[in-house]
Amino acid sequence: MTLSLLIVxxxxxTIVSILSIGLGLQYPDDIVAHVVRLSCDQPREPQSYKSALxxxxxxxxxxxxPIVIRxxxxxYTDRGEPLRVLDxxxxxxxxxxxxxxxxxxxxxxxxxLNILAGLLKPSKAEMVAVEGRPVTGPNPDKVALVFQDSGLxxxxxxxxxxxxxxxxxGEPKGQRAYLSEEYLRLVGLEGFADKYPSQLSGGxxxxxxxxxxLVLETPxxxxxxxxxxxxxxxxxxxxxxxxxxxxxxxxxxxxxTHSLQEAALLSDRIIxxxxxxxxxxxxxxxxxxxxxxxxxxxxxxEGLWAALRDETAKSDRLGxxx
Length: 322
Prior knowledge:
This protein is of the alpha/beta class. It contains ten helices and ten strands. It has a domain at 48-142 and 218-318: Rossmann fold, CATH 3.40.50.300.
């Protein structure tokens, strides 16, 4: 398999929705499953950067650092001209760590996460590695990804959405039912298993999306602004839920966010990026343990804003990009 189940589900949902409406299909599960299987059967593209040579030899490729990025550069083409968004970013993530990446709009946070998830090839990198292996494409056995848009299949219940990745993986029906029930309970939706997405609030949909990622039980969880579209109260509540779920240290989490509050509340460590072309401006490692009280959170927020203020102004002058 070369495409993460979660990634594929999110990518095909819009196309499938259009097809199902146009063809008058009420439950187009077969379309989705067929597209997912076709996608997962495609051969991996050959690796085009140096990390294959570095893995196993580089001192950062350590068992206690399941994520290693070194010398990452990425450029897009804008009106025929190269636009550099990442300019030599290097860091490693400790096993069980909750790492947050924060920076101005357009500085390449999502680009960085997509490269780490195997969705995007870097323009150049000495190393991009997950669990000691170079990233050459999505790795659904090791990495799950949660997007800002929940990407739920509207014709399936909350339970069936959570089970969908397990179905594609070939898990027995009884095991799927057990796991979906356990993870819906974990995210606080045990009473909503048979509800459809149209019957759920925005916060509930994101809980289902989180359960769908967690049920795959990957050691690494990547989250790209998962609560960005929610109102402030729901966002704070979801942050607290995420903190509770990830408090056992069994998963390594990388969160991309614009929210200073989320970063201060959730993180073991916070990487601050500059405006593009982005480099790491600094790293903040809070000295207080999670869960944190109001004074500790406020102190961290103030430190983050001090580091981001000038970069945010610079980003506004450049104009928001990718």
